[in-house]
Design goal:
The complex is a heterodimer of chains A (about 350) and B (about 400). Chain A has 10 helices and 10 strands. With about 350 residues, chain A is an alpha+beta fold. A 4-stranded mixed β-sheet of chain B has the order 1-4-5-8. The chains are: A alpha+beta (about 350), B alpha+beta (about 400). Chain A: Pfam families: Acyl-CoA_dh_1 (PF00441), Acyl-CoA_dh_N (PF02771).
């Protein structure tokens, strides 16, 4: 059984990141950023890149940090806690995982390649919106996460994975209005666009599986922060002469939520460990992590809204940023139901 | 002779030396266990002379493994769970030297089985509300009252008992902790039959039962503190072994699903997969807790594990009956049995369904557990208390 605890290095990494995010990613700034045209917070992304956290699983020989997906998972917990508007999932997780699986680690060092698949794609699904014809691609890919941050688009087409320059002729990236205001989505249209084949579709499956395992860490961070905010609030909000947190109706729901978050931490650590070590149990670990953490993050955000009462329904309170991220993340890389259905095949419980 | 506690290598050597002198195959089981206790190899973290050597608790596992590998008898068949998990650590922490000498050895060897007289018909979750009275009577105490949910009372030689010694002070302050002799003529044990048909538990009626003052554990009026220490020890007794995937009830239902394609329906399939993922999450949570304990930093996740275990057992056993359809209508046996251990796997699905209903009640109800999580872990304000400063005798009953 892999190590489900946090190492000292991971604890230090978390502390450093939390301090940085407290200063450079306060939620009023996040909220303000959603009303600009900037596809992500470029200044914050640059600082994360300088810290080296965007290339943790990339080998040192290829210009990365030579750490693993375990440390990257801790980063995602913290980015989730802050609903940070940076392209970590699309680039530093999905893009990097695809490049590592395709055997092109050098391209991964600056975390600027984004996997161009609909964000809702579950592991194992074969995106088929694009046709490859003699090294040129034609087709449309909808709802791509973080495409606005891509220096390279990694496009699955036919039986291959292709690198495409988003600035090339025949490539159009159009941002769409997304439910999650802190993770931007774009439609990508390719019309006979020049492309370079770098691997096969196995790299896509690997990236989506690793992505599902890592996304669970972001969901854990969201859930944990929503629980904290809510506990803080109900302890100090008085109604009928008592703190509302002294009412059992709320206490029991928060206790159950705490238990779900405690479980989420265990499944997240297991999934990250499997991703880091290439454990053949990774597909099961990722499916369990998504089955559990999708629901936990959404529940935490929904309880956060509800238990803040009217305040929780306002634009001025950050609860909605978490709700939008949590609900979108629960649809990303396969819904919980799809992951449970995948378990049927993985663990031998056929319909 | 050195007084420093032995390390792992030292313990290995002691076990091998012990086995060289006491051949497990040629020694009477009880004699073997007594000798093992006297050699300090019973519970190595206990003090010398009391079955231990003052070694770290974590080294016990290795000692047990060496004895098991040599085919040595263990005290496991005595199933003295309450004695080992609750009575012994309390006696060690609060007992006099005489009490430790008298009680610990036969407790560990299983010659004397223990039970626990805490809960009452009117005081379950609210333990401090208990009404059983202990009145000073010469050099001892006379006890009157009724206890309930007492596992092993029908086989126990001694009981740990909390009783009210001062009804004139608020409820937490007027209790005292005793060791009760279950063979006293004032102690009557009656089986308490439960919805499964069997009687795991008993009611215990105390009518003028006599307890010498030497059998008091801790100071008069300090019973709540001693009882809390006992319950803490109960909670520490978490299994130290990694559970395999599909190790619990989910394994039973998964096997049924695989064996009986004729029973499958789409709705039950979705339900099964949901519970499978939940069970795996619960298993990983238990494993993480185990790793925390091994690293010397236990977290509060045990509460999450208890809540999840109760819910899962109930939902999975319910699913099993639905899956079985017609066979789910049957039951294996309603005759009254007196099982020493709960056995989920060798009984019928109907038994599993009914017995699982106890999981969210025994060892603290899920509702009380949620209050504890909310107040002690999340720091939410306590429930308003009507009884805190009121003498026990004036509380509504």
């Amino acid at each position: 059984m892999s190590d489900l605890l946090y190492s000292d290095v991971e604890d230090d990494l978390r502390a450093g990141l939390r301090a940085l995010l407290a200063e450079a990613c306060a939620w009023p700034d996040v909220l303000a950023g959603t009303e600009t045209d900037a596809p992500y917070d470029a200044a914050l992304w640059e600082r994360l890149t300088e810290m080296g956290v965007t290339a943790l699983p990339v080998p040192e020989a290829a210009g990365g940090a030579g750490a693993s997906w375990r440390e990257a998972s801790v980063v995602l917990e913290e980015l989730g806690r802050a609903v940070a508007p940076v392209p970590f999932l699309g680039a530093a997780v999905l893009g990097t995982a695809a490049l590592l699986a395709a055997g092109a680690p050098d391209l991964a060092a600056d975390a600027s390649a984004v996997l161009a698949v609909p964000l809702s794609t579950p592991p194992g699904a074969a995106p088929d919106g694009v046709r490859a014809d003699g090294g040129r691609l034609t087709g449309v890919i909808t709802a791509v996460a973080d495409a606005g941050a891509a220096a390279t688009l990694l496009v699955p087409a036919g039986d291959g994975l292709y690198a495409v320059d988003p600035g090339a002729d025949g490539v159009r990236v159009t941002e769409v209005v997304a439910l999650d205001m802190t993770r931007r989505l774009s439609d990508v249209a390719l019309a006979d666009a020049p492309a370079r084949r770098i691997g096969d579709t196995g790299a896509v499956t690997a990236a989506l599986t690793t992505g599902a395992a890592l996304l669970a860490a972001e969901q854990l961070g969201i859930a944990e922060r929503c629980l904290e905010m809510t506990v803080e609030y109900v302890r100090t909000r008085y109604q009928f002469g008592r703190p509302v947190g002294s009412y059992q109706a709320l206490k029991h729901r928060l206790a159950d939520l705490w238990a779900a978050v405690a479980q989420a931490r265990a499944v997240v650590r297991y999934a990250a460990g499997c991703a880091a070590s290439g454990d053949p149990d990774l597909p099961v670990a990722a499916a369990v992590a998504q089955a559990h953490c999708s629901a936990t993050a959404v529940r935490a955000a929904e309880e956060c809204v509800q238990m803040h009462g009217g305040i929780g329904f306002t634009w001025e309170h950050p609860a909605h940023l978490y709700l939008k991220r949590a609900k979108s993340a629960s649809l990303a890389l396969g819904t919980a139901d799809r992951h449970r259905a995948a378990l049927a095949g993985l663990v031998g419980l056929p319909a | 002779m050195s007084t420093a506690p032995p390390d792992e290598a030292g313990l290995d050597r002691r076990v091998r030396d012990f086995l060289a002198v006491h051949d497990p195959a040629a020694t009477d089981r009880r004699d073997f266990l007594r000798a093992r206790f006297d050699a300090g190899l019973a519970w190595v973290h206990y003090p010398p002379g009391l079955g231990g050597l003052g070694a770290p608790r974590a080294l016990q596992d290795g000692v047990d493994r060496l004895f098991a590998a040599a085919g040595a008898p263990g005290n496991r068949p005595e199933r003295n769970a309450i004695g080992l998990g609750m009575a012994a650590p309390t006696i060690l922490a609060f007992g006099t030297d005489e009490q430790k000498k008298r009680f610990l050895r036969p407790l560990w060897t299983g010659e004397e089985v223990w039970c626990q007289l805490f809960s009452e018909p009117g005081a379950g979750s609210d333990l401090a509300a208990l009404a059983t009275r202990a009145v000073r009577d010469g050099d001892g105490w006379t006890v009157d009252g009724q206890k309930v949910w007492t596992s092993m009372a029908h086989e126990a030689r001694f009981a740990i008992l909390v009783a009210r010694t001062d009804p004139g002070v608020p409820k937490h302050r007027g209790m005292t902790y005793f060791v009760c002799d279950m063979t006293d003529p004032g102690v009557e044990v009656r089986p308490l039959r439960q919805m499964t048909g069997e009687a795991e538990f008993n009611e215990v009626f105390l009518t003028g039962a006599r307890i010498p003052d030497e059998h008091r554990l801790g100071a008069v009026g300090d019973g709540w503190r001693v009882a809390m220490a006992t319950l803490m020890n109960e909670r520490v007794a978490i299994g130290g072994h990694a559970a395999p995937r599909e190790g619990g009830m989910i394994g039973v239902v998964a096997a049924l699903w695989r064996d009986r394609p004729d029973l499958r329906t789409p709705g039950l399939h979705a339900e099964l997969l949901r519970l499978w993922a939940d069970a795996e999450a619960a298993r990983l949570t238990g494993e993480r807790l185990r790793q925390q304990l091994a690293a010397g930093a236990p977290g509060p996740e045990g509460s999450a594990a208890k809540l999840a275990f109760a819910r899962l057992n109930q939902e999975i056993s319910g699913l099993e009956l639905e899956l079985l359809a017609e066979d789910g209508l049957r039951y294996d046996d309603w005759t009254m049995r007196r099982p020493a251990e709960v056995d989920f796997t060798r009984r019928s699905p109907g038994y599993r369904y009914l017995r699982a209903k106890g999981n969210s009640i025994e060892g603290g109800t899920s509702e009380i557990l949620r209050n504890i999580v909310a107040e002690r872990i999340l720091g939410l304000p306590a429930e308003p208390r009507a009884d805190k400063d009121v003498p026990w005798k004036d509380l509504p009953k």
